[in-house]
Structure formats: C-alpha cells, structure tokens
Specification:
The protein has helices at 17-28, 40-48, 70-74, 85-92, 94-107, 125-134; strands at residues 32-35, 54-57, 79-82, 116-121, 140-144. The chain is α/β, with parallel strands linked by helices and 145 residues long. Among the domains are: 17-82, NAD(P)-binding Rossmann-like Domain (Rossmann fold), CATH 3.40.50; 114-145, no CATH class.
C-alpha cells in the first residue's frame, strides 16, 4: 500500500487498532468515514472521530449488523448513513452517469486496480470461496470454467 502512495495504514486485527485509529482521526481532524465492513467497525469509526462526525456504510464485509452504543449517536451527535451506488447512479441520470464512467475509465489503469490472489478451476469453487472468506483483504480469487 505504501508503494501505491498510502500514507497511513492501520490493520483492524491489530490490538492497537482502536487507539491508533483515534489518534489518526484526531491528527487529521477526520470527520467522515466510509465503512465497507460494518459490524463492530462502525462503532470503532464513530468512537474514533470527533463529535458530529459521519460514517457512511456502503458494504457489509463482516457479515454482521452495524453495532454501536446509542450514546455515540445521542450525546456525540454521530451520524450513520447508508450509500448504495446503484441508487445514487439512478438519481444522477444517464448523461451524468456516462460522463462519470468516462472519467473513471481514464483513472482505471492507475487507480482502480484489483489484486488477483489466485485462479482456481470451477470444480474447486467451494474451496476458493472458503479461501476468500477466510481472508478477503488478500485479493480476489478467480474461478475459471
């Protein structure tokens, strides 16, 4: 990730994650977070950011419900909202969506990359799915017919 230009890298399975996340949010004055994981991650993000911050949930990689202490919402003024790309694109209209697609295609070679971890034959699909769910951040696994 550093080679790709990332300046701050935190690992959620590290015991120091919540502490490091809070310190980084304070340092950067982070007031908005995009949550692809949900589950306990939603509360971690809300806890780490200053009062009145927003967490936008756009995925559920954890497979768990968003979990959060109500006091963070009531007393901290944290806001959690959902984002679904398909709905947003439909609201933008065809012309805007085509323009956006054109711009994204120009970014694709440099920014929009997919890490392919492995390729497996179709008869090993169940093993591939298990490998992927065991470590989703390690990259995609292609199932080849």
């Amino acid at each position: 990730l550093r080679r790709e230009g990332a300046r701050h890298i935190l690992l959620s399975d590290d015991d120091r994650f919540d502490r490091e996340l809070a310190a980084l949010c304070k340092k950067l004055n982070a007031r908005i977070a995009f949550d692809a994981v949900a589950g306990e991650a939603t509360e971690s993000l809300c806890t780490a950011m200053p009062p009145g911050s927003r967490v936008i949930v756009y995925g559920g990689l954890s497979g768990a419900k968003c979990a959060i202490q109500p006091g963070l919402l009531i007393f901290g003024g944290q806001c959690i909202e959902g984002f679904w790309l398909s709905r947003w694109l439909a609201e933008q209209g065809a012309v805007h969506t085509l323009r956006l697609a054109s711009r994204l295609q120009k970014l694709a070679p440099d920014v929009l990359k997919t890490n392919i971890r492995d390729k497996v034959p179709l008869d090993e699909a169940s093993r591939a799915i298990q490998m992927y769910t065991d470590n989703m951040t390690a990259g995609k696994i292609l199932i080849i017919p």
